[in-house]
């Protein structure tokens, strides 16, 4: 089932066209990968989906109904959670405090239900395949992959239907990237729609069900996994045609 549909979305900032007629369908239980280099339009697309910016033209549909997001709260209320590269994780707070940050469980007189929050946090992480033995540890002591996972698990627990992940593996090594990608797959298997924004075709192909490549605001590719190989994805991402032309021009074959 399609949760989000974008139809001929454009976004202009003065004379600069950041997006030029983008079409995208985001479905439950699928990972939709949006790939592109710096300046491709990925960040602009994220901001539109997250309610930070409105498109210049085109249509946004949620559950087949035309929708306008005027604030990030509108996107959150529609079940869209965005995990940005700059994670909203406070290093000096424990894992469980970060998990419930801004949505703490309280009892009489506003007292924190600490034991319950610790238990829920540990259970949710464990169910998603991540074992952090002590959720009392400061988040600053976690690895980059674990920090990403806490942010994603928090969004899942608080009811996200769509997870938008902005370059979640960009600053991670192979092992920690694997932690995050396993978590992405686990979220998909729960029926959540995942939008994975990345410049890494290898990471995208490990978990992706549908692929879109942006280049200078235009869609260069929009295809399901069955119709594209990793080699083709990598070739398109690398600007294969341009590289071949340059190789010919420089006399290298």
From TrEMBL:
<keyword id="KW-0067">ATP-binding</keyword>
<dbReference type="GO" id="GO:0016887">
    <property type="term" value="F:ATP hydrolysis activity"/>
</dbReference>
<feature type="domain" description="ABC transporter">
    <location>
        <begin position="4"/>
        <end position="241"/>
    </location>
</feature>
<protein>
    <submittedName>
        <fullName>Sugar ABC transporter ATP-binding protein</fullName>
    </submittedName>
</protein>
<keyword id="KW-0547">Nucleotide-binding</keyword>
<dbReference type="InterPro" id="IPR027417">
    <property type="entry name" value="P-loop_NTPase"/>
</dbReference>
<dbReference type="InterPro" id="IPR003439">
    <property type="entry name" value="ABC_transporter-like_ATP-bd"/>
</dbReference>
<dbReference type="InterPro" id="IPR017871">
    <property type="entry name" value="ABC_transporter-like_CS"/>
</dbReference>
<dbReference type="GO" id="GO:0005524">
    <property type="term" value="F:ATP binding"/>
</dbReference>
<dbReference type="InterPro" id="IPR050107">
    <property type="entry name" value="ABC_carbohydrate_import_ATPase"/>
</dbReference>
<dbReference type="Pfam" id="PF00005">
    <property type="entry name" value="ABC_tran"/>
</dbReference>
<dbReference type="InterPro" id="IPR003593">
    <property type="entry name" value="AAA+_ATPase"/>
</dbReference>
């Amino acid at each position: 089932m399609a949760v989000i549909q974008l139809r001929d979305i454009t976004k202009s900032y003065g004379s600069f066209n950041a997006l030029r007629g983008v079409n995208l369908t985001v479905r439950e239980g699928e990972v939709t990968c949006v790939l592109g280099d710096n300046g491709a339009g990925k960040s602009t697309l994220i901001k539109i989906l997250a309610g930070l910016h409105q498109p210049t033209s085109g249509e946004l549909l949620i559950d087949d109904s035309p929708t306008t997001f005027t604030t990030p709260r509108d996107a959150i209320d529609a079940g869209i959670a965005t995990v940005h590269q700059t994670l909203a994780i406070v290093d000096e707070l424990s894992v469980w405090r970060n998990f419930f940050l801004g949505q703490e469980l309280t009892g009489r007189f506003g007292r924190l239900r600490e034991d319950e929050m610790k238990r829920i946090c540990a259970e949710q992480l464990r169910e998603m395949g991540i074992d952090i033995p002590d959720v009392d540890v400061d988040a600053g002591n976690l690895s980059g992959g674990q920090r990403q996972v806490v942010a994603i698990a928090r969004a899942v627990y608080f009811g996200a239907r769509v997870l938008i992940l902005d370059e979640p593996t960009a600053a991670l090594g192979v092992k920690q990237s694997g932690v995050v990608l396993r978590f992405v797959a686990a979220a998909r298997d729960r029926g959540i729609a995942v939008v994975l924004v990345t410049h890494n075709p290898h990471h995208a192909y490990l978990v992706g069900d549908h692929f879109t490549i942006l280049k200078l605001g235009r869609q260069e590719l929009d295809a399901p996994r069955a119709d594209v190989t990793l080699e083709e994805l990598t070739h398109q991402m690398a600007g294969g045609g341009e590289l071949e032309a340059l190789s010919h021009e420089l006399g290298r074959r």
